[in-house]
Amino acid sequence: MPTSGRWWPVSSGPVLVTRGLTAGYGGPPIIQDISIEATPGRVTAIVGPNGAGKSTLLRTITGVIRPQQGQVLLDGEDVTGLAPEQLIRKGIAYVPQVQNVFPTLTVHENLEMGGYTRTSGLRERIDQLYATFPDLRAAMKRPARTLSGGQRNMLAMARGLMVDPSVLLLDEPSTGLSPRFIAAVWERIRLVCSTGVAVVVVEQNTRQTLAQAAWAYVMVLGKNRLDGPGPDLLRDEEVVNLYVGRLT
C-alpha cells in the first residue's frame, strides 16, 4: 500500500483486512462489497457523506452486526462473525461515537472497566495511559459525566486502549469539539500510532482527517468510491468536484 510520506512510520503490512464485506440491519444491505486494509502505526480514514455506511462498517468489523457476505481478517486469521467480546480479546478495540463511557463512574473506574479482560498489569497499563492522557490523570477521581466533551472523548479512547489492542477503531472522535480539543485528539491519535497500533478513524471532519491519514477510503451509498493516500485525495479532482463543498 503506498504512503504519502507524512509522519506515519513504515509498516510491514496490514493487520486488519476486510474482503467484500456486505452487511445491514435486516433489510437491504447498508454496506456492499467493502474491502479495506489497516496497517500498524498508521491512520486509515473512512470518510464520506452522511448515510454512506461508515459507522455500519465499523460495527460489522467489531461483531456488533453480523455480515451477510465477506470476511474480516485479523493478522491473517478469519474472525468474521465473532462476538464483540471475542474480538476485543483478539485485539480489536472499538470506540463508538456515543455511549462510550460510564457517566456515573470516575475516570479511574472507567479505565478499570476498560481493562476487564486483562489478567495482569492493570495498574501499570492505567499508569501508561495517564502518561499519554495527562488530563485524565488530573481528573481521575471525577465522574465521567462532569468531564468536557473533549475529555470524555479522550477517556473513551483511553478505555479502548486498556486492552492493548493491535487495532483501534474510532467513530467520529472529534465530533462537537472545539478546534483546541480536535487538535489534542489528533495529537493523541499520533501518539497511539507511534506505539504500533493500527488506527481506523471514521470522521465528518474530512479535510483534517484526510490530511492526517496514511490511507483513506471514500464511501458513497455503502460502497467504496475512491481510496488512496489521504493528502492525495484532498487534491483528487473527483473528491474536489463532488465533496469539497461539503467537507469541513
From TrEMBL:
One of its GO terms (molecular function) is ATP hydrolysis activity. Residues 16-246 form the ABC transporter domain. It comes from the Bacteria. SMART domains: AAA. Transmembrane segments: none annotated. InterPro entries: AAA+_ATPase, ABC_transporter-like_ATP-bd, ABC_transporter-like_CS, BCAA_Transport_ATP-bd_LivF, P-loop_NTPase. Keywords: Amino-acid transport, ATP-binding, Nucleotide-binding, Transport. Pfam families: ABC_tran. GO terms for biological process: L-amino acid transport. The keyword Transferase does not apply. The keyword Signal does not apply. CDD domains: ABC_TM1139_LivF_branched. PANTHER family: HIGH-AFFINITY BRANCHED-CHAIN AMINO ACID TRANSPORT ATP-BINDING PROTEIN LIVF. Belongs to the ABC transporter superfamily. This is ABC transporter ATP-binding protein. It comes from Candidatus Segetimicrobium genomatis.
